Amino acid sequence: MEDGRDLLIALGRRLLLALPFALAGWLLFATGGGAERRILGLLCVVIAGIVVAPPLAGLIAEPAGGLFHPRHPARQEPSHDIAEARRRQGRYAEALDAYERVVERFPGDVSGWIAMLDVASVDLRDAARADAIARRALAALPDAASRMQFLQARRRIHTAEGAALAAPSI
């Protein structure tokens, strides 16, 4: 929004310069008189418009131009589609590899780390691998809130895993 502020300041300065031209143009054109006075008045109004036009056009064009040519590119989000597809197909090792690629690119992706932990714990029943993933996740996650979210999910996964092991199979 710094550009908008700069444009408003420029517009204010230019308005101070254009105001005398606009007043003179109005007085010359509106008060009557000969054709020369009217042409001179019209010329003063045109000059006032030319003085004010660049920052005014910038104020109008800035928001509209941002729709088609954004100044800041869209933030990329991690995609778990491939990993989730592999997991649904029962290809758990490939799912873990796909999640690995996601968290390499987006190390702060809590849901990717949680999904990896879930695959290792629930699908592969590999406690050592799950612990290794948990250690790596806690080291990679950028803030305390992310780490807390991961730890809560880890607790839920371990609770669900323990309940599944304790339940008799039919």
Please write out the topology.
Elements: H1 2-30, H2 35-68, H3 81-88, H4 92-105, H5 110-123, H6 127-140, H7 144-166
Helix pairs in contact: 1-2, 3-4, 4-5, 5-6, 5-7
Describe the protein's architecture and organization.
By secondary structure, this protein is mainly α. Helices cover 80% and strands 0% of the residues. It has seven helices and no strands. It has helices spanning 2-30, 35-68, 81-88, 92-105, 110-123, 127-140, 144-166. Helix 5 (110-123) runs antiparallel to helix 6 and helix 5 (110-123) runs parallel beside helix 7 (144-166). It is rod-shaped and about 100 Å long. The two termini are 64 Å apart. 19% of the residues are buried. Residues 166-170 have low confidence and may be disordered.
Low-confidence stretches: 166-170
The helix/strand order is: HHHHHHH
Q: How many strands appear in the DSSP assignment? A: 0
Structural class estimated from helices and strands: mainly alpha
Beta-strand level of the residues, as a percent range?
A: under 5%
Shape: rod-shaped
Average of pLDDT: 86
Report how far apart the termini are: 64 Å
Number of alpha- plus pi-helical segments: 7
Sheet with most strands: none
Query: In angstroms, what is the radius of gyration?
Result: 33 Å
Helix content: over 70%
Brief summary of the model shown:
With 170 residues, this protein is mainly α. 80% of the residues lie in helices and 0% in strands. The chain is rod-shaped.
